[in-house]
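Here is the promised in-class demo. Please do not try to memorize the tokens; focus on the logic of going from shape to residues.
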């Protein structure tokens, strides 16, 4: 976040992305109780959990995949996976943090599946940037979001995890299943491409 706002040099906030509403997070001490209630089939508890977290999950999946309809699908997949794995939640971190990690993993796994598909189907086209989706609307924040969305997949993922989500290089390397040096190179490349696009 800090790096990207310095690129934009106007304080544009990536967290302003249009996303579904976000509710009130429960107090930390309530996380285990909430998880227990959801596991027991309490629909109201699940609704509370969903409303409190859907905005953040949508925002991170959108930034990682660069496509709104895909982000909505990945958001739903994240909650399905969380439901399936709720019995693994032990309360060592906030329930929202546990869910956020699932969202990141879901988005990164989707990217890896897409990369494998492209390589099988059209190896010469693997790694292409996203196509232009029409003329940009006015406003730096929108330009910044578009610049990030247009990055090659791996560069975008690394940049978002580092500059938006605040993961360490080591954490990103683990999540992306690659070397730290590769992560740093991808982030450097992504920052340069974002800067170039904003300076046009």
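The designed amino acids, position by position:
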């Amino acid at each position: 976040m800090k790096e990207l706002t310095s690129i934009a040099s106007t304080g544009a906030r990536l967290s302003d992305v249009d996303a579904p509403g976000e509710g009130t997070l429960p107090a930390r001490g309530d996380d285990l109780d909430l998880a227990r209630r959801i596991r027991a089939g309490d629909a109201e508890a699940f609704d509370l959990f969903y409303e409190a977290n859907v905005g953040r999950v949508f925002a991170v999946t959108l930034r990682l995949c660069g496509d709104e309809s895909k982000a909505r699908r990945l958001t739903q997949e994240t909650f399905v996976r969380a439901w399936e794995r709720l019995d693994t939640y032990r309360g060592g971190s906030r329930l929202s943090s546990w869910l956020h990690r699932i969202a990141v993993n879901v988005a990164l796994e989707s990217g890896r599946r897409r990369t494998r598909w492209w390589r099988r189907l059209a190896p010469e086209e693997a790694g292409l940037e996203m196509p232009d989706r029409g003329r940009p609307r006015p406003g730096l924040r929108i330009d910044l979001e578009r610049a990030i969305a247009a990055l090659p997949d791996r560069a975008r993922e690394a940049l978002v995890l580092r500059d938006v989500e605040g993961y360490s290089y080591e954490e990103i390397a683990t999540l992306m299943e690659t070397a730290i040096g590769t992560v740093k190179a991808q982030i450097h490349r992504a920052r340069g491409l974002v800067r170039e696009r904003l300076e046009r």
